Amino acid sequence: MAEAKEYTYSDVSTHTAKKDLFIVVHDKVYNATTFVDEHPGGEEVLLDVGGQDATEAFEDVGHSDEAREVLEGLLVGNLKRMPGDPAPTTAKSSHDSSSGSSGGATSGVALYAIVLIGGALAFGAYKYLEAQGADKS
Questions:
Q1: 37: nearest Cα among 28, 47, 25
Q2: CA dist 52 to 46, 77, 119, Å?
Q3: Could you tell me if 53 and 86 are in contact, meaning their C-beta atoms sit under 8 angstroms apart?
Q4: Could you read off the pLDDT of 83-109 as tens digits, one per residue?
Q5: Which pairing describes strands 28-31 and 5-8: parallel, antiparallel, or unpaired?
Q6: Backbone φ/ψ region at 32: left (φ over 0), alpha (ψ -120 to 50), beta
Q7: Cα 95 to Cα 88: distance, rounded to the nearest angstrom
Q8: Burial of 40 (C-beta count, 10 Å sphere; 0-12/13-18/19+)
Q9: What is the value of pTM for the model shown?
Q10: Percentage of the chain surpassing pLDDT 70?
Q11: Is the confidence at residue 116, as pLDDT, over 50?
């Protein structure tokens, strides 16, 4: 990329539709239009942050290195902040820092809950199939 194009917050805020979607992450502007249908979290997630600073939302989820590579492929320019623009999001990158933060604690609790629920469902399925097998005998 020869020279990165600069977008103002006002420029970015006009791109909020599914077929024309820009997001800002760490003051970089990304065209997420081609990725909306492929986003693992669903299109609503991207549409909710379309045309605005999505740094906090992006970092709170704890995206993988692969997701960050996909994001880099969507880069179209840098955000040029102007007076009166919303303040930049101050989310610390969980990718850059391994120190514990409330975002990391929240995702840890969510992961624990998912594992616990998954285990309970697996146990229930096991018991159900076991009962079905006993009925046939």
A1: 47
A2: 10, 14, 38
A3: yes
A4: 877 777 664 444 444 444 455 567 778
A5: unpaired
A6: alpha
A7: 18
A8: exposed
A9: 0.61
A10: 84
A11: yes
DSSP output for the chain: --SPEEEEHHHHTT-EETTEEEEEETTEEEE-GGGGGG-TT-HHHHHHHTTSB-HHHHHHHT--HHHHHHHHHTEEEEEE--TTSPPPP-PPPTTT--S--HHHHHHHHHHHHHHHHHHHHHHHHHHHHHHHHHHH-
Q: How far is CA 75 from CA 4, 52, 82, 120, in A?
A: 9, 15, 20, 42
Sheet with 5-8, edge to edge strand ranges: 5-8, 75-80, 28-31, 20-25, 16-17
Look at residue 1 in the predicted model and tell me its pLDDT: 46
Distance CA 90, CA 26 (A): 9
Distance of CA 22 to the CA centre of its chain: 14
Structure tokens at 113: 């809950």
Name the one residue in this structure whose structure tokens are 């616990």: 116
The one-letter amino acid at 4: A
Average pLDDT over residues 116-133: 92
